[in-house]
Amino acid sequence: METVRLTNRGAVAIATIDNPPVNALSANLRAALLQAVTKAAAEPEISAIVIAAAGRTFVAGADISEFGKPPVSPLLPELLAAIEASAKPVVAAVNGAALGGGLELALACHARVAAPAAKLGLPEIRLGLIPGAGGTQRLPRLIGGAKAFAMMLSGESVSAEEGLALGLVDGVIAGDLLDAACAVAEMLAANGKPVPISAKTDRLNAAERGDFELVAKSALEKAAEMPNVAALVESVRNAFDLPFEQGLAAERALFVKLIADERSKALRYVFFAEREAARVPGIDASVKPRPLARAAVIGAGTMGGGIAMCFANAGIPVTLIETSRDLVEKGYARVRDTYGFSVKRGSLSEAERDERMALIAPAVGLQAAADADIVVEAAFEEMGVKQQIFGELDRIAKPGVILATNTSYLDIATIAAATSRPQDVIGLHFFSPANVMKLLEVVRPAGTAEDVVATGIALGRKLGKVAVVVGNCFGFVGNRMLAQRTRAAERLLVAGALPHEVDAAVTGFGFKMGPFAMSDLAGGDISWRMRKSLGLKAAVADALCEAGRFGQKTGKGYYLYPEGARAGQRDQEVEALIARISADQGVTRRAFSADEIVARLLDPMVNEGARILEEGIAARPGDIDIVWLNGYNWPAWRGGPMHWADTVGLATIVGRLEAQAAETGDASLEPAPLLRRLAAEGKGFSDLKAKAA
Ligand code: T1G
Questions:
Q1: At the N or C end, where does the chain have fewer CB atoms within 10 A?
Q2: What residues line ligand 1, using a CB cutoff of 6 Å?
Q3: CATH number, domain at 544?
Q4: Closest approach atom of ligand 1 to CA 99
Q5: Rounded distance, CA 76 to CA 525, Å?
Q6: Which segments of the chain have a pLDDT < 70?
């Protein structure tokens, strides 16, 4: 199918880009657009050119799937140079998202008109890159160095109106965009082509330079570990210091170097993995979701309140149900307070808060769920309680209603068996705080109907979550792997590491917080209760809880929190306790390097991930990575546990696991068969194809 259609209106040629789904600038599209513009420029009866686009976007940028492959001419800078050098004026009709190379394309044109819904941005920073086709040179010349740098550093888009105010577009057209673009083109042809952006220097002045250097300094301080931030500073600085062509060449060199950087490869992997996770093998677009007009949440605790907020934030009326007026009022008040923090921070207006609170109806008793299309149970994590609730809901809810549980590890098939409609029961595992964390594990027991799974995915999208479909097992995907890390962390303490050393190694890897600081934040009593219910032991963690050291909420846990301090301080008492436990277990303590700590924590997680894939609990390695990025703050520029394992090399991980299994006698550390097979074949998880979850 042709990717560019060339038509004309009188003396104006119109090159319409049509490369579904988002008009990404593939090699074919670049060649076709160059050919169209060259042809139009050579036509004697043509006096000007409009570049337009079909579909919902203008141009979503370079084709990310081409990165890392051998470059194919014409490269984007070549195409843009030809457009800017065109003897006949070229006008961009920006109908929708103009992102990355799409905005760079528009900047190479001699004027830009936008539809009101258009979005304009340079999000390359989010892919570990910088704009690679003139964005760092043209944008500062058009809107000023400081504003341009801030826009490229955030990667945020601006609206058409904001673009107009910035001077990014010359007009916002509520009417027929193409008519307006043609009129501007004719006017430019009559009055003479304006100075191209690359030749403008008025914004490259000392004041702009000073503002830019200020924002650049603070950016460098914050993002020391990301080379693309330093590259962005250097490239925008070049816009001030070098002639355009030299600045462009330097930008390209920086961009090409970043394309090869592991961090950027990981971020580009995540971009596609996140979109692939939404595609569930065996459930295609023909499986229609059920209606989701009204919701009910059972349980007004922290999770239930947060889940109710998710519905209200998406504009879905939700009944928040408890067993007593006092409890539901408490939960409702907690929700109001949570919104209140957003209002105080300025991220929510009072009117929006009131609108959302009005969508949440506090109620007492399960009968209040009678008119809901979907019911999410977020009650006490105890099987008997859940079975009783689902049994009652079975008698109350309309036929076809989705009955969901937010359990974080209980067997959903057993919960479903408490009803006469197991096919309508599904797990919707939100992560605390539910109104903040992006991840939604959609847990499908074998008996769940396909359209119920499709509804779970559709709900995730409606709530602005990242939904990943996972199988029904203890801990599903995220918590099942977290349990391995928790065991490994406890084992490290007994073997010789101290809490602050383990946490420092983990934050040094890129996590926001280490496992022991996390435990003190969440409260060690929660996992202690679960260990006791499962008959599991963890010498250090149990000893701390038996001493009432639950963490921040008791002023001490693995660390001390004097006067409610948020950051924990080392506690000699705890370190002496750990040493005693090592002695009691006959362990001679030794030091561990940060690298060794990271390997001992993450290798067992990867091993569990391999088992999860073997059992079909996750359809593909990328789904596991998306779970960890969106539910546990795994650093995105590391790509996720399975991507990280591939960068380490599976044979290395197999060797380390075998050594650990031998050292500890813990058979669960023996490499999983899938891990062994891939390592033996010299492959990585990325070589696996999706299997039905
Ligand atoms: N390249 C390749 N494929 C892309 C793509 C891109 N730039 N953008 C989207 N897709 C695919 C996506 O994988 C999905 O595929 C389908 O299009 C729909 O996407 C030189 C170097 C435009 C806001 O970072 O932000 O230009 O799953 O589900 O929700 O300086 O796509 O259907 O097979 O996201 O409506 C810079 C990335 C690139 C923008 C639309 N541009 N895209 O959102 O659809 S680097 C970006 C988006 C660059 C230059 C630099 C969004 C969207 P599939 P979708 P959507």
A1: N
A2: 21-22, 24, 57, 60-65, 76, 97, 99-101, 104, 123-124, 127, 129, 131-133, 135, 272, 275
A3: 1.10.1040.50
A4: 41
A5: 57
A6: 564, 690-693
